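Onboarding guide, step 5: your first structure request.
Type a short instruction followed by the sequence, for example:

Predict the 3D structure of this protein.
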Amino acid sequence: MLGASSAIVINEIHHNPPDNTVRQEFVELFNPGDGEVDLSGWRLSGAVDYVFSEGVKIGAGAYLVIAEDPDTLRETLNSSALGPYDGKLDSDGETLRLRDSNDEVVDLVDYKTGFPWPVAPSGEGASMELLNPDL
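The system replies with C-alpha cells like these:
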C-alpha cells in the first residue's frame, strides 16, 4: 500500500522561459491527497538539485513551487517559491526526480521538447503542466 507521500506529484515544469536572461524557471509540486505531507529532507534531483528544509510541508490539495530564483519569480510572476535550486532545467529535456527522505523516488518526469510532449513550452513562455495529477 502506498503512503501519503506517494500522492505528491511533479505537476508543472517551466523549463524554457521566453527571455532566457531572466531566471524564471520553476518546478511545481501538487498534493492531491487528503492530508498534509512533511517534505523535510525530500529533494528534487536529476535536472536540478534541491533539498527541502526541515519543517517544509505541503497541505492537502496544495501546490508548492521551487524556483531557480525565488526573488525573480516573485517580482515577475507575483508568485512565492522556495529555492533557489542548484543546476538548470535543460531546454531540450531531461529527467527530474522527486525523492522522499529515504531517497525513494516518489515521482519522476522524463520530459522532452518534441512529440509526444507539447511544443509550446519550448521558449514560448508556457510551461508543461499535468492535465490530471491522478494519471
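Each response can be followed by summary notes, for example: The radius of gyration is 14 Å.
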